[in-house]
Structures are given as structure tokens and as C-alpha cells.
Design brief:
InterPro entries: RNA_pol_sigma-70-like (IPR039425), RNA_pol_sigma-70_dom (IPR014284), RNA_pol_sigma70_r2 (IPR007627), RNA_pol_sigma70_r4_t2 (IPR013249), RNA_pol_sigma_r2 (IPR013325), RNA_pol_sigma_r3/r4-like (IPR013324), WH-like_DNA-bd_sf (IPR036388). With 173 residues, the chain is mainly alpha-helical. It has eight helices and no strands.
Length: 173
């Protein structure tokens, strides 16, 4: 179980970060998803772990959206918007081990553009794209993780890819 969780933690964090745009919330989502997964599904067959874990993570991201929506409606009435995210100074530090700064800048810009484009996609298209592309899950595993049909996965994935191609045409190195 521990090896499985270690193998998915970085990808799960990245997916949660794209889903919620807050590093602290992303860590909380991944940790909570892992705890729930171990608590409820550790006894399931190993080949079902990945879709089950991503089902939990996907549901946690949806729950966070719902909570934010409710909070934002109340905040609008009681206080002006305040930016609480000033950025992490550790992440802003330059990487001195980068071999080719120009290539790293291009790749960093490309992934920045990809993250921005992913945030513009509808939630289900974004989740299907992340599960199929970044997690390399099959159509069947993705359908199981998202609780929808395989045809729905194919449709959402196709729409996501076409939308991303339209938005990222010149930005990918």
C-alpha cells in the first residue's frame, strides 16, 4: 500500500493543484484522499486501487469547489475580496542545477500556459484530461474513477484536447 501511495503522490498533488490553484489546499486534498482511500479500500484488489484513489481525489476536489462557492457568496456580502496568496518564496527561488536555462524557461512557460488553459476547461473535461494524459489511465479506469460511461470519457477527452490545441497552438516547445 505504501509503495502505491508513494508512486501516485506527486501526480495526485499536481492534479489537485491544477484543480484548486492553492498549494496548501492541494496538499490537504491529497492527504485527505490518501487517508480515506486507505481507510475504505485497502482490502480491495490492487488493480482497482488507482481508479478508486482518483475517484476519491476527484470527489474531494468537487467538494472544495462547492465549499468555495458557498463561502464566496457569503464573503461577497460581508467583506471585500482579499488576496491571501502572496506566493511561496521557496518556490520562487531560482534552480541552480538547471542545465539549460533557455530550455527550462520555454518548458516552464509552456507548462504555465497549459495550467492556465486547463483552468479554463469545464471541470469534467479537465479531470478527464488529467486522468487520461498525466495519469495515463485507460478509458475504462477513467470512467470508473469519474463514475461515468466510457463514451462520456471519450467525448470529454476529445473536447478537452481540441480546446487545448486551440489555446496552446504556439506555446508548446
Amino acid at each position: 500500500m505504501e509503495a502505491f501511495l508513494k508512486s501516485i503522490e506527486a501526480k495526485a498533488y499536481r492534479m489537485a493543484l491544477v484543480g484548486c490553484s492553492d498549494p496548501d489546499d492541494a496538499l490537504d486534498l491529497v492527504q485527505d484522499s490518501m487517508c480515506r482511500f486507505v481507510d475504505k479500500y485497502a482490502s480491495k484488489p490492487r488493480d482497482q486501487w488507482r481508479p478508486l484513489f482518483y475517484t476519491i481525489l476527484n470527489n474531494r476536489i468537487k467538494d472544495l469547489y462547492r465549499k468555495r462557492t458557498v463561502r464566496n457568496k457569503w464573503r461577497m456580502w460581508f467583506s471585500p475580496d482579499q488576496d491571501r496568496n502572496q506566493g511561496d518564496p521557496i518556490q520562487a527561488m531560482p534552480d541552480h542545477k538547471a542545465e539549460d536555462p533557455e530550455h527550462a524557461a520555454k518548458v516552464g512557460d509552456a507548462f504555465g500556459q497549459l495550467e492556465t488553459a486547463l483552468k479554463t476547461l469545464p471541470h469534467r473535461q479537465r479531470q478527464v484530461f488529467l486522468l487520461r494524459t498525466w495519469e495515463e489511465m485507460s478509458v475504462k479506469e477513467t470512467a470508473l474513477a469519474m463514475g461515468c460511461s466510457e463514451g462520456s470519457v471519450k467525448t470529454h477527452y476529445s473536447r478537452a484536447v481540441h480546446a487545448l490545441r486551440d489555446k496552446l497552438g504556439d506555446h508548446w516547445p
